[in-house]
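Just wondering, can you check both lines?
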Amino acid sequence: MDQDYVNVDEILGHHRRLKREQKSSQDTSVNHEMIQIVQPETTRPELPDAEAVKSSCRAAAILLGLLSFFLLIGLIILGCLFTQGKSQWEMETVTLQKLYNNVTRGRNQLQANYNSAVKERDELQAKLQDCANWVFFKGSLYYVSSNKTSWQNSRQDCLQRGADLMIINSQEEQNFANQFKKYLWIGMTDSETEGSWKWVDGTPVTTRYWNSGEPNGGINENCGQIKNYNSQNSWNDENCSNLHFWICEKRASP
């Protein structure tokens, strides 16, 4: 019986050792698996081989070459666009300059036309103003002054107006001159030859309207005038330097 107890104890002890060995074996297996799992993460990566490195370098070189090619193409395109834009800008500048020159010439021409028109206007106004002071009679225009001067100066004034001192060749012209009721220089003189009266156009005085007793001044009175305007015969010889009104005459048409 004692022997049986011994055998049981041995069996139980053997059984416990087997369990411990089995557990130890499982623990060892688990540790081994964990080591295998952790091992790839902690170990250093393997270096690529020389062929892989060469392939990568070739790919990088090709890529860099393509990038350089496209960059060059882009620069060429930009250069062409810039050149084209510059040429177009230069053409537009030339066109604008021509337009500006044309406008300037047109402006200058308009200014010249304007100045000419202003000058013509002023001349016409002067002529109209002058014409307002002229009186038409029997195909001629007559101007009677509003101030007094010598015979010679009065003639110069008439000449500046495109006229001359009045020449009287008819009774109608004589009556016309008398109606102004002024002492008037007229266009006759004997300054060249005493007693030989001539009109300013060089023709001799044939129709005479001398007042009674005239001419009587001799060499001191060599210019003719209308004086006694209330009389039919109103002419008088007068000292040429005396101051009187005057009457100019010019043809109404050339």
Notes: Residues 1-6, 37-43 have pLDDT under 50 and may be disordered.
